[in-house]
Amino acid sequence: MPSTRIVIVGSGLSGGLLACMLARRGYDVTMYERRPDPRRAGFIGGRSINLALSCRGVTALQRVGLAETVLSDSIPMPGRLMHDASGALTYQAYSKDADDVIHSVSRGKLNMTLMDAAEASGVKIVFGHRCVDADLDAPAATLRDESSGSVVRAECDVLFGADGAFSAVRWQMQKTDRFDFSQYYLPHGYKELTIPPAEACGVDPARHGGFAMAPNALHIWPRGGSMMIALPNADRSFTCTLFWPFEGEMGFDHVTEHEEVLPFFEEHFGDAVTLIPDLVNDYMTNPIGSLATIRCWPWHAGGRVLILGDASHAIVPFYGQGINSGFEDCRVLDELLDEYAGDFEATFPRFSRERKPNADAIADLALDNFIVMRDSVANPAFLTRKRVEHALHALDAQRFTPLYNLVSFSNTPYAEAREIGERVIRVAEEIVQRIGVDEMRTMSDEALASSVRAFVESVT
Amino acid sequence: MPSTRIVIVGSGLSGGLLACMLARRGYDVTMYERRPDPRRAGFIGGRSINLALSCRGVTALQRVGLAETVLSDSIPMPGRLMHDASGALTYQAYSKDADDVIHSVSRGKLNMTLMDAAEASGVKIVFGHRCVDADLDAPAATLRDESSGSVVRAECDVLFGADGAFSAVRWQMQKTDRFDFSQYYLPHGYKELTIPPAEACGVDPARHGGFAMAPNALHIWPRGGSMMIALPNADRSFTCTLFWPFEGEMGFDHVTEHEEVLPFFEEHFGDAVTLIPDLVNDYMTNPIGSLATIRCWPWHAGGRVLILGDASHAIVPFYGQGINSGFEDCRVLDELLDEYAGDFEATFPRFSRERKPNADAIADLALDNFIVMRDSVANPAFLTRKRVEHALHALDAQRFTPLYNLVSFSNTPYAEAREIGERVIRVAEEIVQRIGVDEMRTMSDEALASSVRAFVESVT
Fold this sequence. Notes:
Two copies of one chain form a homodimer. In chain A, strand 15 and strand 16 form a beta hairpin. The first copy, chain A, starts with a strand and ends with a helix. Chain A folds into three domains: 5-77 and 104-182 and 291-369, FAD/NAD(P)-binding domain; 186-288; 379-458, no CATH class. The first copy, chain A, is built from 17 helices and 19 strands. Chain A is α/β, with parallel strands linked by helices. Chains A and B meet through strand 13 of A and strand 13 of B. Strand 13 (180-195) of chain A pairs antiparallel with strand 13 (180-195) of chain B.
């Protein structure tokens, strides 16, 4: 019996991991990518330089034996470090457990690792081919060679669209009757800047092991309606990302001239100015990206076609779950293929039905978390509630796992995570309200923990 | 000075009215339509046979002097006539005022009237040309001659997309960055059936003036999750529309064999069975349409391109406002062109900003009204609340205009109508709750009116 022919459109992160999994199942996998091979041409990212890999992503990578390789190059971030306008710092651990960390990983390197692994498993990757059409019935993808202009039709048994937020495969599904679809943009865009290693910006290299700031944290400059963040890179640099409104007083359209950049940053992001030597030039020349949430339904056509990752559910980056949810798609699909012994007709509807509410949940949570990051993290009442959530968690890890932990440090389906996490928030809010935020702010961790214990015992 | 060149894509109802208005302003208007000329080829509707024209539509037609012509062929519907499963009828007037009626109008005839009027005003209509591309900068539309396959590029000063829910002009806008878009389908589809004039279905023609049922009403067979409606036509027939779920016990997929049709209709729509002589054949052969709500933003590109009507805000048909909102777009645009002396750069942003919240409001109201029509109209508490709303309206027409009246019998912007109407609903609900629905149900109109008056006086 000839082996099942699989075509995957898109060799990004989700496509790469999916290819590894399917090749290991013994399928004949060909992956088409519109960009040139990044291992020869240099990585051309459509997205950010680095990303935060968390439990779901790591779990999925473990399935193909790549977790250790990927994590060996990563930088653990056990918490957030907030920079206020005066440069004062506040640290907030993500969890009561020091082992609960998110991992800063290079997007380009992760992608190349997945491509190497896919090829080693027998996947054929065809670069420089853009999907221009998809036949959802055959199924087949039509691809145009970006250099010669010639067109090939790739017939297959199963077609996957792992081709990102502007998926060409989804574009064809969108033309079929009763296809639900939405794309909503934030009024905010993003722009990347670079903090080089310590010596390049006049910081004593001994201070943070060669980094210009503490490396083991996700840095945030929360400024209400806008913010800047920075994630550490393996080369001891940081990649900063501005998340600003396109318009308004804190908006990109407010700072458009060379001479406006430095004064604006000095006022709002003062402690970062000396750390970004190329600030003015980078600000003036780096592009502004836009941020969309994309939802659609259905995700599959029979057992022939499936879209996954950003192609079926692109989200905003504020929970660091874009890639983690894409990798989780791959893991869940692989598990269902085990359960249904490779029957795609049975797998795809079940996969879509199970994953859709979870994709919707993380899309909402990611939008909510933007408010948290740019605003709430600088709010004493929020920080106190977080301490109470941690105390509840320490008291009873089963009943009181906080939302952030469930999302980032567990594989609990997102919809369930949200439900549990929101209950914990309500309990924490009730405690803060009963005891009083001013009272609690000044409590030691021990005093706070015993107040929380007393409350929980009183109501159970 | 050469006259401003306008291209309108789509010669449907909104396109036709817009063309009349713009030609009267002295612009050089060309309208492209993908279908052949319905006045030669026969009308090929993409949509329903008839529609309910109400105040907004009539007001817009008055601006180009067409209201009288159109209404002369229409059938007034001052209320709803509900058919229960046993065939018993309940009438519910739309308003306390007998003059407040909606008008059943032939979609095809209305379209041809608008085309005639447009041509008489100097508009050039090019049929059989499908828009395949739009250049939002030039602006220009690229159109393919459906018979020869040849392609023309229509350069212009201002391009309008009046090309419906699957607008080709919007499709191009959708490819630009930061274009918000959503299309959501109901789980319900629709199918049309015909009740011929009285004599053809064994009803005494003297009974309803040649109609098989009372002509001056919108007939509804509310059945909870699904329903049938019927609107009268000028030829004394009725067009029935089934709004059923695609799937389920009351769904289209539940009745798929010839022999299943009659028993199902006899059980659920018993009094209609004898009135639809071709029931089984029509049911088996007529297509099932789908029902989408489409929202997007922005609606314009500079002063060069604007989409309107279903192209920018397609809604479900349950408030009968699809065409009324499209015609209102034309009226508001024409008024703004007066205000800005034909400056499209100033008009388009203002138009979009003003109309968008109103389009969103009627989209929501139309979805809500499906619940009302298929379910609430058979509910005694709802009918009592409606009586209270009418009594409030009679008491103080300024303060207490009910939602239905504001939407159907006024030109109050939809968003404002919703706000006022929902306040009136809250007052009516409070009255029903205070006095008790069982008590009120049995009250005479006079007793109910005096209870309502007493309540209002007690709280003001």
